[in-house]
Known about the structure:
About 35% of the residues lie in helices and about 15% in strands.
Amino acid sequence: MTQSRAHNRQSRLREPAPLLTGAQAVIASLEAEGVELVFGYPGGSVLAIYDALYASPITHITARHEQGAVHEADGYARATGKVGVVLVTSGPGASNTVTGIATAYMDSVPLVIVTGQVPTTMIGTDAFQESDIMGMSMPVVKHSFLVKSAALLPETFRAAFHIARTGRPGPVLIDIPSDVAAQTLEFSYPSHIDLPSYKPTYKGNARQIKQAVAMLSGASRPVILAGGGIVSSGARAELHDLAHALNAPVVTTLMGKGALPEDDSLCFGFAGMHGSKFANQALCEADVLLACGTRFSDRVTGKPECFAKDARIIHIDIDPAEIGKVIPVDVPIVGDVRIVLAALIERLEKEEIALDTGAWLEHLRQLKARYPFERGTTALEGGLSPELVCAKLSQRLDPLASIVTTEVGQHQMWAAQLIERDVPRSFITSGGLGTMGFGFPAAIGAALGRPDKQIVCIAGDGSFQMCEQEMATAIANNTQVKVLILDNRSLGMVRQQQELFCGGRYIATKLDAVPDFVKLAEAYGWQAARVADPDDLDEALDDLLACKGPALLDVMVVRDHNVYPMVVPGACLDEALGVLDTALTADGEGEA
């Protein structure tokens, strides 16, 4: 039999592609991508898609608000490294997702958001529950699709997942009119997608890698700045190996926390606005700075003109738009940070480069001993010390077996300062957009994605109320989320700024009418307790972590306590306020 005849015979015997509706094709596409969970909220324009989901093995998590659904998918994605998926209806259902999408975009989190839309013939007519979600979300997505034919659904989903998870990860939106969901198509999911206009660069330029090695080889005060790109690219091992090959200190951004174990001798914590004095000083005194997977946020750099002013800077990032955007660099390297670091290590070993950094490291260790984070480790007048609470919680968490999420505010910074994280994806926070209401639903998503981990959300009383309705989602899905509220009856971070910059004129930051969080949690079926006495704190924390199912602990912390150090906007990193300096007084209590 000739090859041509054999091919024709196989073609005749091959089963025809199944005939599906557009709605069924949406679910079949998600199944083809290996999706296990979808976070969403149903509505009229996605009714057919939900009906198709009924017979699918995919589990649907019903949020209590579309913003909560996106944050839950975001937390799931950050905890697992998988793409988070959201399904919501048109109009207000779609518009309610925008804050969550922007949060994921700023922190480079891979999401695919599927929104319903009015029929194609009614788009632009101000139909019931019509909204231009494409226009609303355009600045905060990697890409968006308006699908006008069911035949395009398989390749659209293949492209969306590819774009979301590759290059610099981020959210992708697919808008599906209800008539498209009703059309039929012969379904065949593509195994490969070719996008000529989207070709991320993964391998760094060899000449620039050579320049970087030459620059590093001449350093006497090198510093590695590790950002969130280390986490998203899975470059933990390469970061560790490079740091130890150079014997160079590592400082992280807030988003890079956990990129290197915090008990590693070369880890000097996180830098920036509320970072440590010793981490910030390392950046200020460096003569060569290797920045890995960081976009040089203003919260990291302080005043750009005085950031690492004595250093020659090597910047590795997969997004070329981030290189040179904020801080001028000497050696730009576009590429995946894991691949580029591996290339740097290979060249360093080949050239047998070894740096003499003993004196530099000893200097930084002396700074670390002199300027500790810990303060207020005893009872304060008016309530518990939030630093004490975070320090005691950290002692009880296994850094390798737990994930901490935070809301946004003072508690976020205390958690970052005092809770030890030793692995990537174990500290989840909104670093770019600073979204209040993110941390609690993100904890739910993390718990659903990593049921093997202990999940603790650290929240403030203000931020927790942004998405408190998701307590229903947590209990309905029997998640093991634990919430610790640092309750200061205030919007603490804004109150602190009013104290420092507005002459103590406090407006709109006192939350005297906060709910009884214990009764609120119990109304949702949670276990809950409150602690205000320092003598009861240890037992309260132990009880919280031992609870089966979702549980909440309302911790009454001192109301007017500030989070320090603090580099005020427009200041240099070495000009932080409230630095605890143990050298000022003999008993170790003093501030610079």
